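Q: Entry one of two.
A:
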Amino acid sequence: MRLDKMLANMGLGSRKDVRQKIKKGFVSINGKVIKNQGQHIDADKDLVMFNGEQINYREFIYIMLNKPDGVISATEDDYHSTVVDLLPDEYLHFEPFPVGRLDLDTVGLLLLTNDGKLAHELTAPKKEIEKVYYAHVEGEVNEGHIEQFSRGVRLEDGFVTKPADLTILKSDSVSEIELSIREGKFHQVKRMFQAINCEVIYLQRIKMGELSLDPDLLEGKCRELNEEEMKYCLSLKK
C-alpha cells in the first residue's frame, strides 16, 4: 500500500494534506524518516510513525449501535438525524454505513461497518440470517398465533412470510412477545401482527445472527465489536 493512501485512509488528512506532511519529514517507517509519498509499506509489518505517534492501520470498522427512536438508518437525510450522526468523529473517516435498516420508530441492535462483504452476508435474503425482535403489541396474542406464525403469515398484499418463531412473554390487552424471522420485508414485523388484528406499539431488535444487543449499551450509544463478536462476523466472510 502507498504511504500517502494509508495515512489518508486513517483520517490524518486528505491525500494532498498527508503528502505535504510526508515531504516535511513528519513520517517515519521503521525508524527512518521517509519523504517519498509513494513509498510502499506492509501495514502488518512496518512501524509507521506520524508526527511522533504510531499508526496502527486497519481497513474495516465494525460498530454496534443501540439505535434510538426518531433516527433514520441511513448515512444522510434531509429531514431526520441519521445513525451515522450518532457516531464519534473518530469513526467517520472510515465512512461506515448501516447494515440493513430499522424503521424510524424501531430501536435496538444495528451494525455499522464499511465492510461491504460482511454487509452482504448479513442481509442477503438467501443467507436467511435470523433476526430477533422484542415488541409490545396492542391486542391479546395467544397460543393459536404461535401456530399461525410457525406456518407463515399472509400479509395484506397476499405475500406469505416464511415460518417465524413467536414467543409470548405476556398475553394481555398489551402483549409482550419475542419474534424470530429470517427475512426482512418492508415493515414486516408490524405487518405480521396487523394480519392478526394487532398493532405493534414498541419494537426493538435484540439479535441479528449471533450478534446480540449489549444490555449495557444505552440507546443512542455505540461501541466496537468485541473479540467474540468479530470472530462470528469474520466467519461469515469465509
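Q: Entry two of two.
A:
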Amino acid sequence: MKKVTAILALAGSIAMVGTAQAFVPWSNPNGNATNFDWFGGGSDNGLFGSPILVGGDTFVFFPSFFRAQSNNGGAAQTHDRLQVELLAHLGQNFTNVQITEFGDYGIGGAGSSVTANMAMFLTDLTNFRVASANQTYSNNVPGLGNWNLGATIDLTISPPSWNHIQLVLNNNLIAVSGGENGFAFIEKKVQGIIIRVPAPGSMAMLGMGGLALIRRRR
C-alpha cells in the first residue's frame, strides 16, 4: 500500500511540474467540428502529438514517444498535459466529455511495476466552475500486455448548461524496475476524446473497442 501511495504522490507532483513547461501547439491548434469549435490546442511536452477529427465530435491521437522505461533498478517517469478551449455552436451545449486511452507494457523481475494515471479537468469559462475525473492503472505481474483507462464527465447533471469550456488532461506514466536484471516499460499508443453536443454523435460507441480497432488498422 505504501508503494502505491508513493507512486500516486509522484504522479501528482509531476502533473504540477508540467504546468511550468513550454507549450507545444498541435499542427491544428484551432478548428471546426460538427457542433463546436476549438482553440489553442496543444500540450506541455508535445507527447500527445496532433489529433485527427473523427465522426465530427472525436479527437483521436496516436502518440509516438509517450513512454516510460526503467532497467536494472530505479524508476522512470513521463508526463504531459494537454489543453484545448472548446466553444459550442450557437444554441448548442456540451453534454459530456469521454476520454479513453490504450497502450502496451512490459514487466520483468521481482519488484518491477508500471503505473498509468489520467486526470481530466473541465472548466466552465462562462460560469467559472470546474468538473473533474481521474483513473489509475497499476500492474506488477511479470509479462507483456495491454493497458487501458477511461473516464467520462456528465455535464447534464450540473446546470446551467456548459457551452464554453477549457479541457485539461494530465497523463503520467511510471515504470519501476526491481533491481539487477529487472525491467519495466509502459507506453501510450492511442488516445480518444469524445465531445458530445448535444447528444452522442456518430462515434458515441467508440469507447475501448473502437479505439482498439483503429489501433489494429495502423
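A: Comment on entry two: Residues 21 and 44 are 5 Å apart (CA to CA). The first strand starts at residue 24 and ends at 25.
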